[in-house]
Amino acid sequence: MSTTIGMDIGGTNVRGAIVAEDGTVVREEHRHTPRGFAALSDTILDVVADLRSGPPEVIAVGIGIAALVDFDGRVHFAPNLPGLVNVPLRDQLNEALDLPVVIDNDANVAAWGEAVYGAAAGVRDALLITLGTGIGGGIIAGGALYRGGHGFAAEIGHFTVEPDGPLCACGERGHWEAIASGTALGRMAREAAAAGAAPSILAAAGGHVDAITGYHVTGAVLAGEPDAQQLLDRYAVNVAIGLAGLANILDPTRIVVSGGLIDLGERLLDPVRHAFAGRIEGAALRPAPDIVAATLGDRAGMIGAAALARAER
Predict the structure, then answer these.
(1) How far apart are CA 210 and CA 226, in angstroms?
(2) Among 6, 22, 136, 215, which has the minimal tally of Cβ within 10 Å of its Cβ?
(3) What kind and span of H or E run contains 32?
(4) How far apart are CA 64 and CA 309, in angstroms?
(5) What angle, 0 to 180 degrees and rounded to 10, lies between the N-to-C axes of helices 266-277 and 226-250?
(6) What are residue 9's DSSP bridge partners?
(7) What's the half-sphere exposure (Cβ side, CA atoms, 13 Å) at 226?
(8) Residue 142: left (phi > 0), alpha (psi -120 to 50), or beta?
(9) Same domain flag for 265 and 302
């Protein structure tokens, strides 16, 4: 059995799992993400050592990391991982582990997990988006993970939809991420509450406008509050604007939506589909891509990284 380790490295947690060939997670280990390259490398090695301390035998390690990663496994830039600038992570881990190591962007490996075992299984051309603090993405083209000329493709949150729009976390204005991420939903909710248009959300945040986040919107929507659903419907238009642009360029047959906001299920997806249908080119004259929820949850990165390691070792 070709068992591999898959790891998902973000700004908060380092997560690793032994994953069987059928996608089953055999065992998991979690650590807090340390600051600095040396400390992070040590943490990765520690997690791998714990996972390898018992059966089954591991043949390769796959890692998804929230960073720009080139084809040689060099991390060029990681905005939420201080100290990771132009570091040869794969080479160092290969030497330390004496195992094949594959490294890619975290959203890419999550997309691959959904393509192999999840909501995009059997689909040759698909797009995965992650709606969280920012917007991540992965592109499946012709049954393969599309990485672009340098390995940096699918930074889908960072194209301009409003030239004078809100400031994005990357420093540019009007990126799709700045109007359609979970962070953007929180900002929209604060603005609505300050204008007196979101009483249930304000109440959920204890009456403090500045305390409102996307989490309070989600809770109010799930509680059936009409003002919260109205806000979510406006937010869904922002999501659909970016999806329609990407669909016009990529022509996927399926769009898979993941991230914390997908807990809203059809309360989010229905208005997104409705807004999307009016924006894609030739909507009445072409097949529309399915817009569906991801199925692997927060394990998609680990499972996808393990599958990528199995495929590319």
Answers:
(1) 21
(2) 22
(3) strand 25-32
(4) 10
(5) 50
(6) 14, 65
(7) 0
(8) left
(9) no
CATH code for the domain of 291 = 3.30.420.40
Residue position matching structure tokens 């909710």: 189
- Whether residue 159 is found in the same domain as residue 270: yes
Do 96 and 132 belong together in one domain?
no
Whether residue 150 sits in one domain with residue 46:
no
CA dihedral 302, 45, 11, 106 (to 10 degrees): -30
Beta-bridged to residue 257, according to DSSP, are: 129, 293
Q: What is the DSSP string of 82-117?
A: TT-SSB-HHHHHHHHH-S-EEEEEHHHHHHHHHHHH
Could you list the beta-strand ranges (E) of 184-250: none
Please tell me the predicted confidence (pLDDT) of residue 11: 84
Task: Based on the fold, state whether residues 153 and 87 are members of the same structural domain.
Answer: no
Q: In this structure, are 264 and 152 located in the same domain?
A: yes
| Domain range enclosing 240 | 122-295
Q: Which tokens belong to 262?
A: 């997908």
Burial class (CB in 10 A: 0-12, 13-18, 19+), 35: exposed
One domain, residues 181 and 286: yes
Q: How many domains does the structure of the chain reveal?
A: 2
Q: Are 278 and 243 in contact (CB under 8 A)?
A: no
pLDDT at 1: 63
Any idea which residue has 């909501």 for tokens?
A: 119
- Angle, helices 300-312 vs 106-117, to 10°: value is 80
Examine the domain organization and report whether 68 and 216 are in the same domain.
Answer: no
